[in-house]
Amino acid sequence: MTYVVTVDMCLPDGADELDALQQVGASALLEHGFDAVEAIEGPGGVEVDVLETIVAVHPRGSIVKVFVHASSLETAEDAVGSVAAEVLERSELLADWVVESSEVKLHIDLTRESLAAADGPDAPPSDLRARRARHTAGTGPGDTTHPAPRLDGADDESAEDDEEQADLEAQIRALAPRLVSFDPRPPEGGEAAAIGSEAAELAAGALVYAAEVLIDELYDDVQTLADEETNVAECRAELWHLAELPPRYGLAYDELFARRFLVTAIALTTRFTDGSFRELGCLAEELVLKLLLQQAHSTLDLYGLLGDDVAEALGRFADEVYEDTDFEWLYDDARDGVDEDPALAGAGITPTAIGTWFTPFDDDRYVHPYAVDEETGPQSTHD
User: Fold this and answer.
1) Among 67, 79, 106, 139, who pairs with 40 as Cys (CB 3.0-4.6 Å)?
2) Per-residue pLDDT at 42
3) For residues 25 and 8, what is the distance between their CA atoms, to the nearest angstrom?
4) How far apart are CA 176 and CA 169, in angstroms?
5) Summary count for the chain: helices (H), strands (E)
């Protein structure tokens, strides 16, 4: 069976954060180290085949997704964890790094192929929401899968359902402190304070939770395009998020684009959660944020937690992060091509041709070195 093992690697305690150039170097070393491995000997001498590796380096370390074929989940985790430690040990420059975790995150969406292939009277329903509910029943954000929504037709008045709903809400709100770059609490006094700290915390927790879902599903989209050797416009398989990008550029959304977009999503959400976020760096980050907000809204709505006050708190977050919403023109077919005119820059509107999506808005913005457009110059490190 094929598993996707997520390896979290971090710098040793007290080490300085990596600047842009160091991130490029670390990424190259990790990619070279993992690419040299075709198979791993797991516990008991069981061979584990390495199918593909995706590396994303951030200022405090790296997240590596390793696609392997193994006999069991435990075998996959143990084998990848051991080879990750070996890759670090063999590299003099990375020898002090630490493998923080090596695990298969049982994201519900990674099981959809097996669910769709099931047959017989116990086959899962075709509706995606119902399938997710069945697969994740009884779990929460802190578990290996995502929390279960309340099934349609359930007795909303029952004490058991009320208790489960309250537990789900508490688990999502508990994630709020991880949104380090933003204070989920409303300011003292004024209209914003009327929203309430609980709603703000719930919105912040939903954003953290949505970031995990978004990144996992983008990994899935990358793999789908790689398997089919195609682009979004011509892909016959289901895609989770890349199909939500402006459709006029569907032919340009190939595997390389998908990888760059994924790394951009990782870089942006890392800055949200490590306290280093200052401003959006490029148009691609604006689109990532749009998908993140959509995921947060749909998650809360699915669990019956999207009240008006929570929606308002998410809106406040969006207003705080977005400088403008010029990118929305990309979704308006009536304006096809108009938004790409460089003359618009004189009117204070940034041209949005796809060749500029990963170009920093200005010299002070950060775009991950893996994703940045080649013709751009050196990156700011915000030092």
Assistant:
1) 79
2) 62
3) 17
4) 11
5) 10, 5
Q: In what order do the strands lie in the sheet with 47-58?
A: 39-41, 47-58, 61-69, 2-10, 98-104
284, pLDDT greater than 70: yes
Mean pLDDT of 207-224: 92
The pTM of the full predicted model, rounded to 2 decimals, is 0.61
Q: Which tokens sit at 197?
A: 């700290």
| Residue 44 amino acid letter | G
For residue 339, what are its two tokens? 């938004």
Number of alpha carbons in the 13 Å side-chain half-sphere of residue 255:
9
Alpha helical stretches, state H, the chain: 20-35, 73-90, 112-117, 128-135, 159-173, 190-193, 197-228, 255-274, 283-302, 308-321
- For residue 177, what is the DSSP state? G
Tokens describing residue 188: 């003292």
Bridge-based pairing state of the strands 2-10 and 61-69 = antiparallel
| One-letter identity of residue 163 | E
C-alpha atoms less than 13 angstroms from C-alpha of 259 in its C-beta half-sphere: 16
> Which pLDDT value is given to residue 185?
58
User: According to the model, what pLDDT value does residue 266 have?
Assistant: 93
For residues 10 and 98, the answer to whether their CB atoms sit within 8 Å is: yes
Q: Do 373 and 353 meet the contact criterion of CB atoms below 8 Å apart? A: no
Q: How far apart are CA 63 and CA 27, in angstroms?
A: 10
Q: Which residue has the higher pLDDT, 171 or 146?
A: 171
